[in-house]
Design a protein that fits this description.
458 residues; alpha/beta; Aspartate Aminotransferase, domain 1; Aspartate Aminotransferase, domain 2; 2 domains; seven-stranded mixed β-sheet; binds ligand F0G
């Protein structure tokens, strides 16, 4: 087997900026140990997110020039609509400026106090939009998904039995929707199997609960199904994606992921009445239904991106580059979630820094150490992001303490990835010197974006 190479060549380059460890120490302290507060110019390899950070293709840039900016009925909208329908098979397509705008509209229509939205794992903005409506979001991740170091092919699967007992306990009438997140971002970018989607669908149908897909990384999920699930080896990824969507009553998507767009999203629906309700909200929040929150040129970029992402040489390279980094780290003894997910490498911070208690946010401490060592920016996905407080103000920790290193699509080359591995291994060798953190300032919701922290003084 020959090396799997980047299936593109580079036409336009963007400089990255180097700084010294001494400079990074000052920058990290000034940013209160929060990577979201570091200027991008001060980051060498930016793995904060794979969202909106893709390199667009020459075709997408050409599409940008062809964007039609008519307020109503733009041909760019129809092109976008065709591309989304072609994959989802859903008749009502509503463009939004990003994924969370689609979520806000959907949950404003269907949420409310006393309701439960169930999922394999809700992403943080999804959960926040559900909670903002007064409803509650509840996750049912399968057993394998709870153990970062134990390999399993579909660790993003929803625990159907657990969901079944929850429905029986709470009553289907209080559950407006089940949402399957593909791939499961907050659970390690792990895929969901077609079998699991089918089983969840059957349970939902039996109780009259609509099934939605959070489709941000649908192509990566479809490719994992092709690689790992019996009966899909010879199917093309578009057909696999179509089958995934065929079980759903609706989907939300952030086009900033698997559509290679720098902005955008959509809501795809099968229910006309709900679509009408959502469009009414769209008009007062995003814009007229043929542009949503987007420019015509963005709609063009998304339409083209949705076609490009299903190219199997791209998906092979994409999934392989994440796996390559994961394997390198694993071989060096670094605790990393296995098998590799679709868009990111997840370090297990609890195992990496066993000397730091969960109440001192080991994930955030590791994020800081990676920045200091090599100018790499990652993000904590653990108790800082998902922790809650009990009535006594004690931290209720998240299930896992992870650090996500999300790989932007088509942006970094193999030598960047090799450098990242070297930095992480270096940090791992000196892990006992890393200190925990305590919070000095925090917001009531989505606190990780603005939180300020300080190292714990022993
Ligand atoms: N759902 C999932 C699974 C996501 O990963 C995201 C965004 C969203 C919804 C919201 O989409 O950002 O366009 O509003 N995830 C980004 C990330 C921010 O870094 O993982 P958005």
């Amino acid at each position: 087997m020959k090396t799997i190479i980047e299936p593109f060549r580079i036409k336009s380059v963007e400089p990255i900026y180097f700084n010294s460890r001494e400079q990074r120490e000052i920058i990290l302290a000034d940013a209160h140990h929060n990577p979201f507060l570091i200027d991008a110019r001060d980051v060498l390899i930016d793995l904060l997110t794979d969202s909106g950070t893709s390199a667009m293709s020459s075709h997408q840039w050409a599409g940008i020039m062809q964007g039609d900016e008519s307020y109503a009925g733009s041909p760019s909208f129809y092109r976008f609509e065709r591309a989304v329908k072609n994959i989802t098979g859903m008749p009502f397509i509503i463009p939004t400026h990003q994924g969370r705008a689609a979520e806000k509209i959907l949950f404003s229509s269907l949420g409310g106090a006393g309701k439960f939205f169930v999922s394999n794992t809700l992403f943080d903005t999804t959960r926040a939009n559900i909670e903002y409506s007064g409803a509650e979001g509840v996750d049912f991740i399968c057993e394998a998904g709870r153990h970062p170091s134990i390999p399993a092919p579909f660790k993003g699967n929803l625990d159907v039995e657990a969901l079944k007992s929850f429905i029986e306990k709470k009553g289907a009438e209080n559950i407006p929707m089940c949402i399957i997140t593909v791939t499961n971002n907050s659970g390690g970018g792990q895929p969901v199997s077609m079998q699991n989607i089918r089983e969840v669908k059957a349970l939902c149908v039996a109780h009259g609960i609509p099934l939605f897909i959070d489709a941000c990384r649908f192509a990566e999920n479809a490719y994992f199904i092709k690689l790992r699930e019996d009966g899909y080896k010879d199917k093309n990824v578009l057909d696999i994606a179509r089958e995934m969507f065929s079980y759903a009553d609706g989907a939300t998507m952030s086009a900033k992921k698997d559509a290679f767009a720098n902005i955008g999203g959509f809501l795809a629906l099968t229910n006309e009445q709900l679509a009408q309700q959502c469009r009414n909200l769209l008009i007062i929040t995003e814009g007229f239904p043929t542009y949503g929150g987007l420019a015509g040129r963005d709609l063009e970029a998304i339409a083209i991106g949705l076609e490009e992402v299903l190219d199997e040489s791209y998906l092979q390279y994409r999934i392989r580059s994440i796996e390559y980094l994961t394997e390198k780290l694993h071989e060096a003894g670094v605790p990393v979630m296995r098998p590799a997910g679709g868009h990111a490498v997840y370090l297990d911070a609890k195992a990496f820094l066993p000397h730091i208690p969960v109440s001192q946010y080991p994930g955030q401490a590791l994020v800081g150490a990676l920045y200091l060592e090599g100018g790499i920016r990652g993000v904590e996905i653990g108790s800082l992001m998902f922790g809650k407080y009990d009535a006594q103000g004690q931290l209720i920790p998240a299930a896992l303490e992870l650090v996500r290193l999300a790989i932007p699509r088509r942006v970094y080359t193999q030598s960047h990835i090799d450098y990242v591995a070297e930095v992480i291994i270096e940090v791992f060798q000196h892990r006992d010197q890393i200190k925990g953190l305590h919070i000095t300032e925090e917001a009531p919701m989505l606190r990780h974006f603005t939180v300020k922290l300080k190292p714990v003084v022993a």
